[in-house]
Amino acid sequence: AKEEGRGRWTLFDPQRNARSVSRYAVSVRMPVALDRGEFFIDYQPLCRLEDGSLSSVEALVRWRHPQLGVLGPDEFIGTAEETGLIMPLGRWVLEQACGQAADWVERFGDRAPHLNVNLAVRQLRNAGLVADIDRVLRSTGLDPKRLQLEITESAVMGPEDDSLRALNSLVDMGVSLAIDDFGTGWSNLAYLRDLPVASLKIAGSFVSDLKESRREQVLGWRIVGGLVSLAHTLGLTVTAEGVENADHAERLRSMGCDRAQGWYFGRPSRPEEIVKRIMESKSG
Ligand code: C2E
Ligand code: CA
Ligand code: CA
């Protein structure tokens, strides 16, 4: 499975040469980058479509590289997965984000948003994952019910028993799981039957690409509608990603989609921006 993963990455990595970021430079610098505090986290709102209120924020990691400027995760997460650095980096993101979320709860109580954190395939395969998360929740004091972990379809395709056990333990702890980029994985959907998933996140491309021909528009929206129905039939909540304008938001709301994430509801932003959003929101 490892071989396969590596092969896939080589084949499907269009980003690799897109910028002058050599993977070598990235992988050599990354270990010190963590120690030197060059990584930071932006938070993007997930809003309830019924009233636009702030439901959660997704932690999205960035790297302030001393020479290359700010790098997005697409430019280093792949390398981090390959080199294993995703382990300390993933742990740092989790700790940092849970600490932030707990701090907001302390300041704003129930008005504070929940927290979504991305989990890499490699983290999921790691035997220490459950203990790590348990430790982070205890040390930060964040209520596990406020944490949702996002995993991709490819991560749960034919999940090994160990991963399945780990995910079940996390759910027993009170943490919830979301399937990220739902609909792009080419997988059979059996995992929805086998996994304790609470939520689906419809891949941004389904919504934000809806600007082509009339026919594509119609079919695209029908697919989104079908995914929303599928989620609800299974008793799951559903979040649409890539929501870029009011038209997207209105259509999704009328379909009964629960939550939305995208530029229309807020770009990934610094914690101070999120605090402003919380303070603007009504309590209750
Ligand atoms: P993702 O989990 O699908 O995160 C959403 C991505 O969509 C983010 O890109 C976000 O900036 C972008 N986005 C949000 N709203 C819109 C919109 O309206 N239109 C468009 N076109 N794009 C939008 P970003 O921050 O570059 O992150 C890329 C990916 O990197 C993430 O995709 C996630 O898979 C991964 N990633 C980010 N942070 C972490 C992390 O801490 N750990 C792991 N393992 N992966 C991470
Ligand atoms: Ca995600
Ligand atoms: Ca996503």
What keywords describe this structure?
single chain; 284 residues; alpha/beta; eight-stranded mixed β-barrel; 9 strands; globular; disordered N terminus; binds ligand C2E; binds calcium ion; EAL domain-containing protein
Q: Which stretches are low in confidence, meaning pLDDT under 50 for 5 or more residues running?
A: 1-18
Which percent band covers the strand fraction?
Answer: 15-25%
E-strand count: 9
Question: Which word captures the global form?
Answer: globular
Sheet/helix structural class: alpha/beta
> How would you classify the quaternary structure?
single chain
Number of helices: 13
Main sheet: strands, sense, barrel: 8 strands, mixed, barrel
Distance between the termini: 47 Å
Radius of gyration: 19 Å
Q: What ions, cofactors and ligands are bound?
A: ligand C2E, calcium ion
Helix content: 40-55%
Strand order of the largest sheet: 1-2-4-5-6-7-8-9
| Average pLDDT | 88
Query: Which H/E pattern describes the elements?
Result: HHEEEHHEHHEHHEHEHHEHEH
